């Protein structure tokens, strides 16, 4: 039977993509003819990740209106992700929940009302709690940000938590100038590595404090290659004259992710009117204030949570500017992902256990590789 003119017209506007989907020549109006089955790490109750996470398969619906279907390429395992699954984090997802908050994904197809995104583009999630430990997902257009394919997968996948935390802490508490000094404990953490790199890009001296360990020389060299001006152990900082000798200006800003005695020691080295920002507490010990510096130097203690900042500044120009600067540095090779290991999705239990047992020494981030 001969085709009608309308059917001939429709057939002429369709072509087969490399994904195996029928697509319109207009790339913003792709139409899917094959169902996608997503493999996701889901949990229905709080507990240890190895015990409550299950690899579940779900058939995804076609994206409609402002929805976007993506294929996840890589998704990291962050300490906050583990704490969320355990029920120890302020964010409480609705069950059943998919783990993960960060990823880099490739757009497969989009709904008919999507205007700013096209198939084939790389994107990252702008919103938290979307569930990124999955091979495929359907998100809303305004929940995604385009990332240049010049940015490496590991860099893109880990861009919305650690680099942004470092960026905001460097920008929002003290007005720093080239030649100023920042000091931080946990300097080999993912945020610590980001701080060193941003400081190098902006001409700021970055002093890092780390725990002593057998491979301390190698660790110091690695951090200095990232941009650290000086790296000292917690023992060395207690007797160092690095600031008294005039070699470096006294720090006006300090970052703490450890707590306890480590935070107290870092605060002692602040200059008059300096600020110590706490963004983590790996030791699970409270931040104690040294009375002398508090009174005679008038130092201040602040807290920072990136999730809150992102929610309050979701569509702000300042957030767009931040991502633009970070991605430009990544494209130029001036900002690299933290030390990491790509792990197949099937090995998620081993990766979760390794992330859970992180004690501040390995300095390695585990990233789920969805292509394996």
Automatic annotation (TrEMBL):
<dbReference type="GO" id="GO:0141148">
    <property type="term" value="F:enoyl-[acyl-carrier-protein] reductase (NADPH) activity"/>
</dbReference>
<keyword id="KW-0276">Fatty acid metabolism</keyword>
<dbReference type="GO" id="GO:0016020">
    <property type="term" value="C:membrane"/>
</dbReference>
<dbReference type="InterPro" id="IPR036291">
    <property type="entry name" value="NAD(P)-bd_dom_sf"/>
</dbReference>
<keyword id="KW-0275">Fatty acid biosynthesis</keyword>
<dbReference type="InterPro" id="IPR051034">
    <property type="entry name" value="Mito_Enoyl-ACP_Reductase"/>
</dbReference>
<dbReference type="Pfam" id="PF08240">
    <property type="entry name" value="ADH_N"/>
</dbReference>
<feature type="domain" description="Enoyl reductase (ER)">
    <location>
        <begin position="51"/>
        <end position="367"/>
    </location>
</feature>
<dbReference type="GO" id="GO:0046513">
    <property type="term" value="P:ceramide biosynthetic process"/>
</dbReference>
<dbReference type="GO" id="GO:0006879">
    <property type="term" value="P:intracellular iron ion homeostasis"/>
</dbReference>
<keyword id="KW-0809">Transit peptide</keyword>
<dbReference type="GO" id="GO:0006633">
    <property type="term" value="P:fatty acid biosynthetic process"/>
</dbReference>
<dbReference type="GO" id="GO:0005739">
    <property type="term" value="C:mitochondrion"/>
</dbReference>
<keyword id="KW-0560">Oxidoreductase</keyword>
<keyword id="KW-0444">Lipid biosynthesis</keyword>
<keyword id="KW-0443">Lipid metabolism</keyword>
<dbReference type="Pfam" id="PF00107">
    <property type="entry name" value="ADH_zinc_N"/>
</dbReference>
<dbReference type="InterPro" id="IPR011032">
    <property type="entry name" value="GroES-like_sf"/>
</dbReference>
<dbReference type="InterPro" id="IPR013149">
    <property type="entry name" value="ADH-like_C"/>
</dbReference>
<keyword id="KW-0521">NADP</keyword>
<dbReference type="InterPro" id="IPR020843">
    <property type="entry name" value="ER"/>
</dbReference>
<dbReference type="InterPro" id="IPR013154">
    <property type="entry name" value="ADH-like_N"/>
</dbReference>
<comment type="similarity">
    <text>Belongs to the zinc-containing alcohol dehydrogenase family. Quinone oxidoreductase subfamily.</text>
</comment>
<protein>
    <recommendedName>
        <fullName>Enoyl-[acyl-carrier-protein] reductase, mitochondrial</fullName>
        <ecNumber>1.3.1.104</ecNumber>
    </recommendedName>
</protein>
<keyword id="KW-0496">Mitochondrion</keyword>
């Amino acid at each position: 039977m001969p085709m009608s003119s309308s059917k001939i017209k429709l057939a002429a506007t369709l072509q087969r993509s490399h994904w195996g989907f029928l697509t319109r020549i207009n790339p913003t109006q792709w139409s899917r003819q094959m169902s996608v089955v997503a493999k996701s790490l889901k949990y229905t109750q709080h507990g240890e990740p190895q015990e409550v996470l299950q690899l579940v398969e779900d058939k995804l619906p076609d994206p409609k209106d402002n929805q976007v279907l993506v294929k996840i390429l890589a998704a990291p395992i962050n300490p906050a992700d583990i704490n969320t699954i355990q029920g120890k984090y302020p964010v409480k997802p609705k069950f059943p929940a998919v783990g993960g908050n960060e990823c880099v994904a490739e757009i497969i197809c989009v709904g008919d009302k999507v205007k700013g995104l096209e198939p084939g583009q790389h994107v990252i999630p702008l919103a938290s709690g979307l569930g990124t430990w999955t091979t495929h997902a359907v998100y809303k257009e305004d929940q995604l940000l385009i990332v240049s394919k010049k940015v490496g997968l590991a860099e893109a996948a880990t861009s919305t938590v650690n680099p942004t935390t470092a960026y905001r802490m460097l920008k929002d508490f003290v007005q720093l100038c080239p030649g100023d000094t920042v000091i931080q404990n946990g300097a080999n953490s993912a945020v610590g590595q980001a701080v060193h790199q941003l400081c190098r890009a902006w001409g700021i001296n970055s002093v890092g404090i780390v725990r002593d360990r057998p491979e301390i020389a190698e660790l110091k060299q690695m951090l200095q290659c990232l941009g650290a001006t000086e790296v000292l152990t917690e023992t060395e900082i207690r007797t160092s004259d690095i600031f008294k000798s005039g070699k470096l200006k006294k720090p006006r800003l300090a970052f703490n992710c450890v707590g306890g005695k480590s935070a107290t020691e870092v605060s002692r080295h602040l200059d008059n009117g300096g600020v110590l920002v706490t963004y983590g507490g790996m030791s699970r010990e409270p931040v104690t204030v040294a009375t002398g510096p508090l009174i005679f130097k008038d130092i201040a203690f602040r807290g920072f949570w990136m999730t809150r900042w992102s929610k309050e500044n979701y569509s702000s120009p300042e957030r767009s500017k931040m991502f633009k600067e970070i991605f430009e540095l990544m494209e130029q090779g001036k900002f690299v992902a933290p030390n990491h290991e790509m792990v197949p999705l099937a090995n998620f239990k081993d990766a979760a256990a390794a992330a859970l047992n992180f004690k501040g020494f390995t300095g390695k981030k585990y990233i789920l590789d969805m292509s394996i």
